[in-house]
Amino acid sequence: MSTLVSVKNLSKVFDVSKPWLNRVIERLPKAHLTATSDVDFDVEENAVYSLVGESGSGKSTIGKMVVGLLQPTEGNVEINGVDLASETDIEIIKQSRTDIQMIFQDPYASMNPRWRVRDIILEPVVASNGDTEGLAEKLLEQVGLAAEDATKFPHEFSGGQRQRICIARALASAPKLIVCDEPTSALDVSVQAQVLNLMDDLKSELGLTYLFISHDLTVVRHISDRIGVLYLGRLVEEGTPDQLFDAPKHPYTQMLISSAPKIDGFGREVDPPQGEIPDPIDPPSGCAFHPRCPIATAKCKSERPALRELDDNRVACHLA
Amino acid sequence: MTEPILSIRNLVVEIKTRHAILKAVDCVSYDIAPGEILGVVGESGAGKSMAGNAVIGLLSKPFSVADGEIWLKGRRIDNLSREKMRRLRGKEIGVVFQDPLTSLNPLIRIGDQLVETIMEHLKLSKKEAERRAISALEEVGIPAAAKRVNSYPHEFSGGMRQRVVIALALCAEPSLIIADEPTTALDVSVQAQIIALLKRLCRERGTAVMLITHDMGVVAETANRVAVMYAGRLAEIGPVRDVLTNPKHPYTDGLMGSTPAAAIGLEKLRQIPGSMPRLARLPKGCAFSPRCNRATDKCVQDPPPDLTAGEGYAACWYSLKTECTG
Ligand SMILES: Nc1ncnc2c1ncn2[C@@H]1O[C@H](COP(=O)(O)OP(=O)(O)OP(=O)(O)O)[C@@H](O)[C@H]1O
Ligand SMILES: Nc1ncnc2c1ncn2[C@@H]1O[C@H](COP(=O)(O)OP(=O)(O)OP(=O)(O)O)[C@@H](O)[C@H]1O
Ligand code: SF4
Ligand SMILES: [Mg+2]
Ligand SMILES: [Mg+2]
């Protein structure tokens, strides 16, 4: 297997300062929010790499940098050895663009409601002057809908069917990598199962690679080959699903797994975790998790733990 | 059995549209006992919120209670006037919605909102009400409550806001709480905090809780009994462990099977084909029949009988039994 995506030292800082005049009047300094900080990981070809973490941990920001919707502040993303941000050869840029597609949580919001399904699906191909003859119909059948659906409008479909249409659109340019940002979070479980099974089938049939973003641990456990856990914009642990769920090494991963409700957890009394995610504009010193960590020491407060190899995992914790 | 706090009998909620009258809730009956948490589950559009809103008297135009009865502590409440119902809400029934901002006034300090609710429902002086507001916030785990009463809703995080809403729902000591997806918008760690809080309050005060959610894990950990809804009807009801581990209705069985947690070690998830029908296009027999792998002609022709409170567990012609799940 070879590496398809290589993310290196990726950081993204947003300027969240108030407008200049307010700052002067209220004597406020500039404010910066670090959404992603020094994130490093590789995605193997034809594998599923998942990013999990709670709201605001930087999952979508990384996804957007991987597809090129956002410019990294530092670091870079290479896809098949090509870094879109620094590449100058137009042909290579064009090819790389069609190699990467993205699907989002809310299928309805990402479609023009006045377009027919055919036009929605073909949009990325038309934009690059590709061949569209019979393509929409073929893709619709591939995602489990009917060729006749090509002439309908988005409102005529259920949520799960719309997500299938989004998948068809993502497939239209024959991509290698699909970044899926919470693709089933808005769907009912029975429909989620249909979509996840479909994604799995397409992966084997077409040799696709997924960067899968989700906050749902059970989904991630089911679908992934490798999982990265994010906290406040940093990777805190990475491993295979079995490693992570059977023997989580980082206290944050342990907290996430133990607080997720279990379908066989009848009458389970959890010691609920302490505290909430801190303000990303003013993150805690040292290990960002230390204010909530049950085993934190003085070192955790002052010194940030590096992400280091441990067995086959990577963990960023002084005490792991 | 002790007398239930809430009894719903043959509840029907109708939606009047230009073309037809649709039944969003169709002949649903159940009870909730003191100190009991009844989970109400089912996929989007099953009618969970409509049933909850009927109980708290929050249905308005195209929706109305068309039939059936709702009883709270032995008193019939579905025929009360709007004003009487408004007073009952807050005093006897506390309400927690998914979005805490729907229950909080953004322009009023949270302490004042609590004091207002307390004084409306309990005969207390301003001073006493203020003291009570602080203890209500302490009880739901707001740190430095005496200071935080002066804050506005936007100064709290999502999880803290939901705690404030729970404090608001509980401050007049209601006997019933309707919680409609109270943790759906929250992170798992905060969800665990809120659920532990609800469970503790329910245990300590004997409050009855109707917990509406689509998360089977939340139900398993929180509820004593669970009601499964499909297309406006009650598909199955019973003790939570029985229903989730030994479902009698094929829909419950499918719902449990399609959760990723049920597929650990399996290549594929079990899926239910199709999706829930729209109300305007309900099948004539069992509403689940087009998606059901056991459906026969009988299922397609005739709907199975409705569940009556206290009797029967699944509205299905061929209820699954333990021995035939294989
Ligand atoms: N355009 C932006 N300007 C300023 N801050 C931003 C911007 N986009 C994201 N952020 C901030 O960056 C952080 C990471 O956001 P991101 O959307 O990547 O999180 P996420 O992990 O996808 O969360 P969620 O689960 O809620 O989708 C958050 O604190 C967010 O508020
Ligand atoms: N204005 C309307 N006109 C017609 N049907 C409606 C209208 N509003 C709601 N409905 C229907 O009423 C039914 C019950 O909706 P309800 O909100 O109770 O579902 P729910 O089980 O709470 O779902 P969710 O999990 O999405 O909150 C749904 O089938 C919905 O489509
Ligand atoms: S009544 Fe028939 S169609 Fe309906 S759930 Fe039971 S077996 Fe399936
Ligand atoms: Mg996101
Ligand atoms: Mg609802």
TrEMBL record, chain A:
GO terms for cellular component: plasma membrane. One of its GO terms (biological process) is transmembrane transport. SMART domains: AAA. Residues 5-257 form the ABC transporter domain. It comes from the Bacteria. It is found in: Cell inner membrane. GO terms for molecular function: ATP binding; ATP hydrolysis activity. CDD domains: ABC_NikE_OppD_transporters. PROSITE patterns: ABC_TRANSPORTER_1, ABC_TRANSPORTER_2. It is a peripheral membrane protein. Keywords: ATP-binding, Nucleotide-binding, Transport. Belongs to the ABC transporter superfamily. This is ABC transporter ATP-binding protein. It comes from Kiloniella spongiae.
From TrEMBL, chain B:
It is a peripheral membrane protein. GO terms for biological process: peptide transport; transmembrane transport. InterPro entries: AAA+_ATPase (IPR003593), ABC_Ni/Peptide_Import (IPR050388), ABC_transporter-like_ATP-bd (IPR003439), ABC_transporter-like_CS (IPR017871), Oligopep_ABC_C (IPR013563), P-loop_NTPase (IPR027417). It is found in: Cell inner membrane. It comes from the Bacteria. CDD domains: ABC_NikE_OppD_transporters. GO terms for cellular component: plasma membrane. SMART domains: AAA. The keyword Electron transport does not apply. Pfam families: ABC_tran (PF00005), oligo_HPY (PF08352). The keyword Membrane applies. Residues 6-256 form the ABC transporter domain. One of its GO terms (molecular function) is ATP binding. Keywords: ATP-binding, Cell membrane, Membrane, Nucleotide-binding, Transport. Belongs to the ABC transporter superfamily. NCBIfam families: oligo_HPY (TIGR01727). This is Methionine ABC transporter ATP-binding protein. It comes from Kiloniella spongiae.
